[in-house]
Amino acid sequence: MKHLFEWIEKRQHAIKTWMIPILAMLVASVYLLVYATGGIKFVYSHSMYLPILIAGFVFGIKGGIVTALVGGLALGPFMPIEVATGEQQLAINWLYRSGFFLLFGILSGLAADSATSYITHLQWLSLHDSSTELPNRKALLDRLTPNSLLIVISLENVMELKSTLGFSVIDEAVRQLAARFLKMDMGKAIFRIETRQLAVLLFLKDTEDKDVALRTLISASREPILYNGISIHVDSRMGVTEIGENVFEPPERYLQEAEAALTIAEEKLQDSFPYSPEIMAATTENLVTLGELKKAIEHCELSLHYQPKVRIADGMVCGAEALMRWTHPTRGNIPPGMFIPRAEQSTLIQLITEFALKQAMEQIVVWERYGIRIPIAVNISTRNLLQPDFSDFIAKLIDQYGIRAELLELEVTEGSLMVDIEQTVAEMMKLAGLKIIMSVDDFGTGYSSLQYLHKLPISFIKIDQSFVSRSPADRGAAGILEVAVDLAHKIGIKAIAEGVEDEKVYTFLHSIGCDMAQGYAITHPLAPDAFKSWYERCNGVYMCSES
After folding, report:
1. In contact, 544 and 522? CB cutoff 8 Å
2. Are 137 and 194 in contact (CB under 8 A)?
3. Burial, 498: exposed, middle or buried (Cβ in 10 Å; 0-12, 13-18, 19+)?
4. What is the pLDDT of residues 212-271, one digit of tens each?
5. Residue 392's pLDDT is what?
6. Which of 323, 314, 307, 374 is closest to 518 using CA atoms?
7. Cβ(273)–Cβ(238) below 8 Å
8. What one-character-per-residue DSSP string does 486-533 give?
9. Global pTM?
10. What end-to-end distance do the CA atoms of the chain give, in Å?
């Protein structure tokens, strides 16, 4: 049926052109049939309803009326009651019949016009967003042409706007941004492709003009929108892709490219980001990696390696950090940087954290049998801390494995603390109440946690390796190290330097009073058995040759 309507729509003009002589022939044929059968007194006059109905369906109400009037006249004063006697009709008779013809013409035309109007509306809806009346995603795909620039714009603070002002504010924001873009002096078309996304198609040949247009769009998007008399700021990011002169890809591919670039713009917190083939390759690899991650946990492909933490003053090994490793059956070793950051943005981080906690607690139990009684640190994310009853889950695990809570350390990155500081502090207080050691990882990379640092129930700050590795040669990095160590001591906690890669750095850390060190200078992360052998070989004490 769909294909039939499409076929009819494409040939509508030709069909109407051919129907005019066909209808004329039908009306003439009915006239001749009635005349040949003896006149209007016989039933053959009802055959005139056929061309009237056809005319109404094809030409609408106007066509039905015209054909009804022509048919009424043809079977009216020009048609006798009985041909043999030549008796003519009374005017009231043929006018009454013509009235019925006219009624049928109007009804058939009205039905056809209503159906046509409804189909037209459905066609419009298939190509437009009903809320803003902007062309939609399908319309965009139909419009993509060579030598154009496709920009996908996403509204970033949608949840905040909806929760504060209601759902209609998003439609209004999109409507105002679209109107703003359309007023700009450049060849373009605006589309609403998702609830919070607009697409702008620019038809500009000069690269410099495209750059100017992009800057203009960014500037316009920063202007506040007006909603119920209130000026509201709308955060936005843009993904950009160019459609070259030779278009070989399906239209969906270019939209996919722009949205992939938009994802990078969101991750990097940039106003806009251009597409490159490397983006799609990396995104595909990320999705494949995440897709295999759950199976990797189930199939025991993940494991923990342990890197010791050493007390600088006397070299005593006083802890170890659990670091995730993934040995893929076909891809080999997958570095943590390829899957941990992405997993932290998904619900998979809950599974990974649970796996790491269970493995670490099992290792605590095993090492205690050999007299290795050191805390094991496990990295957790803010998603974990914001999970309901996370502290209760940890408490159950501690009871299940029968370990002392002070042998478990939880590390939270400084930057992640800022997501929901109040909830984070509350959950960390519960964990500290269980006597679990708490520490802040990557200290120095954030910029707003100092005001909360004194509130956090932490025992350590881990100074980020970006400062440690540059010291003492880089005076700026060395100065930051000294300040961080001094700050930690003044608020009653200890400082750990991570990423210590040579003994000169270790000696420098000793000179500034840093409490603990961790890094390749001491040893690489080790598998559990290798860690046990290393620990027993050095009797739990690291001796720096420069000390």
Report:
1. no
2. yes
3. buried
4. 888 888 888 888 899 888 888 888 999 999 887 766 678 888 898 899 899 888 888 888
5. 92
6. 307
7. yes
8. HHHHHTT-EEEEE---SHHHHHHHHHTT--EEESTTT---B-HHHHHH
9. 0.65
10. 87
Query: In Å, how far from its chain's centre is CA 452?
Result: 32
Q: If 0-12 CB within 10 Å is exposed, 13-18 middle and 19+ buried, where does residue 389 land?
A: exposed
Token pair recorded at residue 470: 């540059």
Cβ atoms of 232 and 161 closer than 8 Å: yes
Instruction: Tell me how far CA of residue 4 lies from CA of 58, 199, 437, in angstroms.
Output: 15, 32, 72
Instruction: Please give the helix or strand (H or E) that residue 201 lies within, else none.
Output: strand 197-202
Cα–Cα distances in angstroms (integers) from residue 536 to residues 109, 323, 359, 371, in the given order: 96, 21, 21, 10
Token reading at 130: 């009903």
Which is nearest to 376 in space by CA: 435, 432, 321, 303?
Answer: 321
Tokens matching residue 242: 């160019």
Residue 36's CB is within 10 A of a number of other CB atoms, namely 10
